[in-house]
């Protein structure tokens, strides 16, 4: 009898699928002991307390989750340990071949979200995150909660508070604007536009304007000087500017250096062009000036990123513009820097936007 059971287990283990369909990514193999690591190939797998579909569900797993095969099988069911829980599932929902996928991050979509040690509102708070901060799905979910790995720690968060494909509204300071993501509506006019310090006509949204003033003061304290030479542009202004570029350069060349109306970051009121004077106005040489180097090294402290960095035109869709800075807030700008994300598209996990 024991020999038969061992043979059955071996056959079932051999039948575990070896194909993997990419989906929401998991973190590293989850805690738990076992003889062999397996991965879930179902989009939202319910694992049971006993090897039958009518037994209680003890844990749920997202596609791509890793588990430990316990070496026990009954019919088409196998026992695994996942997220510290022993459970049963049909072998067809698992694979023994490590998938060659790249983990997709998850973003917080609310202003402040509390991560908890267990999937309950009364469990201890592990950390509090800010909007657009990144974590990583482990693949475990219970009820309306999802488990994430955040700054090296495992925690639980309400699934409704996170997203694997963040799309921030046009009014958000985190809105992504590029050749694939126009403003909505295209002729959007931001609220709370204020005059930039040191200018009589240039305007930015309040938070960006205040951050720009602080950044310029900090640079001046370090002996570095720069000014804002362009900020908010209306839909009509951007349409006229783009038309001039097309007339002078042709459309293909114009699209590398100027945005079409409704697709311009300047229209958000969160973007500014900087200059340190001299003969390097709106030129790549700005990146080699004292001001350009200072902004690149310190802009994140004030919430600014160099939006179109050198060597990333295939992602951003624009030529290198070291003078073009975008306000995303200190938290996100610092997270981008610390995480080594050169472009906003990469940080948000969104597709490259080289063309319209």
Describe this structure in words.
By secondary structure, the chain is of the alpha+beta class. The chain folds into three domains: 2-95, SH3 type barrels; 105-163, Roll (SH3 type barrels); 193-348, Muramoyl-pentapeptide Carboxypeptidase, domain 2 (2-Layer Sandwich), CATH 3.30.1380.10. Helix content is 22%, strand content 29%. The chain contains eight helices and 20 strands. The chain has helices spanning 2-15, 206-221, 235-249, 251-257, 290-298, 313-316, 330-339, 344-348; strands at 36-40, 44-48, 57-62, 66-74, 77-82, 85-90, 94-95, 105-108, 112-116, 125-130, 134-142, 145-150, 153-158, 162-163, 193-195, 203-205, 227-230, 271-275, 304-308, 321-327. Strands 2, 3, 8, 11, 12, 13 and 14 form a seven-stranded antiparallel β-sheet that branches. It has a five-stranded antiparallel β-sheet with strand order 6-5-4-1-7. The chain has a four-stranded antiparallel β-sheet with strand order 17-18-20-19. A hairpin with a 7-residue loop joins strand 15 (193-195) and strand 16. Helix 3 packs across helix 4. The chain is elongated and about 75 Å long. Mean pLDDT is 85; it is low at 1-34.
List the helices and strands and how they pair.
Elements: H1 2-15, E1 36-40, E2 44-48, E3 57-62, E4 66-74, E5 77-82, E6 85-90, E7 94-95, E8 105-108, E9 112-116, E10 125-130, E11 134-142, E12 145-150, E13 153-158, E14 162-163, E15 193-195, E16 203-205, H2 206-221, E17 227-230, H3 235-249, H4 251-257, E18 271-275, H5 290-298, E19 304-308, H6 313-316, E20 321-327, H7 330-339, H8 344-348
Antiparallel strand pairs: 1-4, 1-7, 2-3, 3-11, 4-5, 5-6, 8-11, 8-14, 9-10, 11-12, 12-13, 15-16, 17-18, 18-20, 19-20
Helix pairs in contact: 3-4
